[in-house]
Inverse folding.
């Protein structure tokens, strides 16, 4: 009988790699924490950097999250060891999912936390080592002026399951006042669906 | 060796009782359409009506007050819709603006139907519950004063097991001239229920929660009470639910109920004992937990517990790897992002709701299985908490 998710997910879930153990001494060069326990997911990533090679030497993580979050972060932690910082910075949830052999659609949002936490940890390292210029500022752009909804919120809504303009409206309330943002919102909607689910 | 599965998810569904299996096998000969006039049809009709009589007797109803439906969800949808028939010619339609009162802890089939009716302009209000999941009686009085046609309150909650005082609630509702429905899907067959003593106008029950087949339920409709069918186009079920009778399902439900009559009293005692053992064992071995639901007025077999710093889907799936089946109130297991609406309604914070599991025992549950759960659960929680960002905080 098949397990709830792929064998790869099961493997990483059963025996997650690179977890920060209680009391473990792991001096880190960068630390990132994202998510929120109230939303059911919170993740913390620690990295050690090889400053010469500009690669990730080692990493540890902790998570409050479901099986998919645990497995995808464990997989990510394996993927990035020895990887150049710049390359690690660009890892997408899609690449992690591919390595895991896929996740059901409603679980995709559980796998976006790992790469976000990793990027936060790399940002932290850049900050600590005077390389602020390398931090890519992901400034949110307001799409719906009336309801103050950003492109980030639209992406988040897509990850939560919004597939149509109506569902997007239900989740974010965008376009419910003047309606002028409809075209922009629909374009972003299809972009984010393409980005995460194609 | 294939590990035996310890099945502790009986509120989701139950295995068929062996006697039900036997009855189903023997029922294969009743393939005639109960509406047919020939011998095979008459044979099936007789069998269906005999089952109706036995099922009605089990809940203290008359035979013609019980109609068979496809599921508990169908029964609940039917009752909630009795005032909203879209036909102008339907005698059921006059009270378009009569409101509905229900609670914040109902099954999704009641919650979503209510939301839909509210979208269509019908006034719907939701009664709050206290921390143990008990309905606020004062609020019910207040809402009834604003005029409502129908009140729907579940008898026993599927997630936390809390049992409401239906008799008292029905009395209050009738004092204000409204009709009273109770979704008793989790209650029927767990303890004795008599519709006359309770004074309800409608009651929903389902086969697959009590070791009967899936796809069969029954709705009690008190004689003389306003009714409008949800599924039209046939004379079956006194014109109240069209569609050829599910003869096999009905015979299976009858047997399931007959077995409940024999077994439920002993079983309730046994499951209350198991629950006490479980609670004690969990409390002793695992810190930072909280039991959800009413401590006394609760289904014997249901135990809902929250673990700080551990997420429910992870708990469920680690237990699954150990061969134990439970369910969780975490959002992650449902596909939505919101944790259980029932736990949130009891005032539990989102974090603890995400970290909850429901253990629901049944007639086949043994002491060995309870001991096994108490052996693996502390290990699982410890493992999850060790990797959790949220556990040290609460210590």
């Amino acid at each position: 009988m098949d397990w709830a998710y792929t064998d790869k997910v099961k493997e990483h879930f059963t025996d997650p790699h690179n977890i920060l153990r209680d009391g473990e001494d792991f001096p880190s060069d960068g630390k990132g924490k994202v998510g929120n326990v109230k939303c059911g997911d919170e993740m913390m990533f620690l990295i050690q950097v090889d400053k010469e090679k500009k690669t990730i030497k080692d990493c540890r993580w902790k998570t409050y999250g479901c099986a998919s979050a645990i497995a995808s972060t464990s997989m990510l932690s394996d993927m990035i060891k020895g990887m150049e910082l710049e390359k690690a910075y660009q890892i997408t949830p899609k690449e992690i999912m591919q390595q895991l052999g896929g996740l059901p659609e409603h679980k995709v949002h559980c796998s976006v936390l790992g790469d976000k936490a990793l990027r936060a940890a790399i940002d932290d390292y850049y900050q600590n080592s005077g390389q602020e210029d390398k931090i890519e500022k992901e400034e949110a752009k307001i799409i719906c002026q009336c309801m103050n909804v950003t492109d980030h919120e639209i992406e988040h809504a897509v990850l939560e399951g919004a597939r149509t303009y109506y569902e997007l409206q239900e989740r974010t309330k965008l376009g419910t006042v003047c309606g002028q943002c409809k075209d922009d919102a629909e374009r972003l909607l299809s972009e984010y669906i393409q980005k995460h689910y194609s | 060796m294939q590990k035996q599965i310890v099945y502790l998810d009986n509120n989701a569904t139950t295995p068929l009782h062996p006697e039900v299996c036997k009855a189903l096998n023997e029922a294969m000969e009743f393939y005639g359409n109960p509406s047919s006039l020939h011998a095979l049809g008459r044979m099936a009709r007789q069998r269906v009506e005999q089952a109706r009589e036995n099922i009605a007797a089990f809940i203290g109803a008359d035979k013609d007050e019980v109609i068979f439906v496809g599921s508990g969800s169908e029964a609940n949808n039917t009752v909630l819709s009795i005032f909203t028939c879209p036909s102008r010619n339907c005698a059921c339609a006059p009270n378009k603006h009569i409101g509905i009162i229900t609670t914040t802890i109902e099954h999704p089939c009641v919650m979503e139907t209510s939301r839909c009716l509210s979208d269509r302009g019908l006034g719907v209000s939701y009664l709050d519950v206290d921390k143990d999941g008990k309905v606020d009686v004062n609020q019910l009085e207040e809402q009834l004063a604003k005029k409502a046609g129908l009140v729907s309150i579940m008898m026993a909650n599927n997630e936390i097991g809390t049992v409401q005082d239906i008799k008292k609630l029905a009395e209050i509702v009738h004092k204000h001239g409204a009709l009273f429905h109770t979704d008793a899907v989790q209650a029927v067959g767990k303890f004795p229920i008599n519709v006359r003593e309770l004074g309800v106008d409608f009651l929903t029950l389902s086969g697959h929660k009590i070791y009967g087949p899936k796809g069969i339920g029954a709705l009690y409709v008190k004689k003389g009470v306003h009714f409008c069918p949800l599924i039209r186009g046939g004379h079956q079920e006194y014109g109240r639910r069209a569609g050829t009778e599910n003869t096999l399902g009905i015979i299976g439900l009858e047997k399931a109920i007959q077995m409940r009559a024999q077994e439920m009293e002993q079983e309730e005692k046994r499951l209350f004992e198991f629950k006490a053992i479980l609670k004690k064992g969990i409390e002793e071995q695992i810190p930072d937990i909280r039991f959800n639901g009413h401590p006394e007025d609760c289904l014997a077999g249901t135990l809902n517990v929250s673990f700080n710093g551990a997420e429910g889907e992870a708990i469920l799936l680690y237990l699954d790897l150990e061969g134990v089946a439970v369910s969780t109130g975490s959002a992650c297991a449902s596909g939505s992002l919101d944790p259980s609406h029932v736990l949130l309604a009891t005032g539990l914070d989102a974090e603890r709701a995400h970290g909850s599991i429901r253990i629901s025992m049944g007639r086949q549950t043994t002491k060995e299985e309870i001991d096994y759960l108490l052996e693996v659960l502390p290990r699982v929680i410890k493992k999850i908490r060790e990797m959790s960002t949220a556990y040290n905080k609460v210590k």
